[in-house]
Amino acid sequence: MALILWLIGAACVIEGLVLALAPSRIPQLLALIAAMTVSQRRMAGLAALAAGVALLWLARSLGFGPSSG
Q1: Domain count, the chain
Q2: Is 66 a domain residue?
Q3: Quick check: 5 and 65 in contact, CB under 8 A?
Q4: How many C-beta atoms surround the C-beta of residue 11 within 10 A?
C-alpha cells in the first residue's frame, strides 16, 4: 500500500511541476497529441510506461521510495 501511495504522490508531483512551470505549453502539447494517430499515441504511451518502470526500478535499487519489507 505504501508503494502505491508513493507512486501516486510522485505522479502528482510531476504533473504539478509541468502545470506550474510551463502552463502556456499545455495547449501546444495537447494539440501535438491530438494530431498523432492512435498507433503513435499508443507507442508514446508504451515508451513512457517503459521509461517510468525503468526509473522506478533504478530509484528502488538506489534506496529511494518505500522499503520493500
Answers
A1: 1
A2: no
A3: no
A4: 11
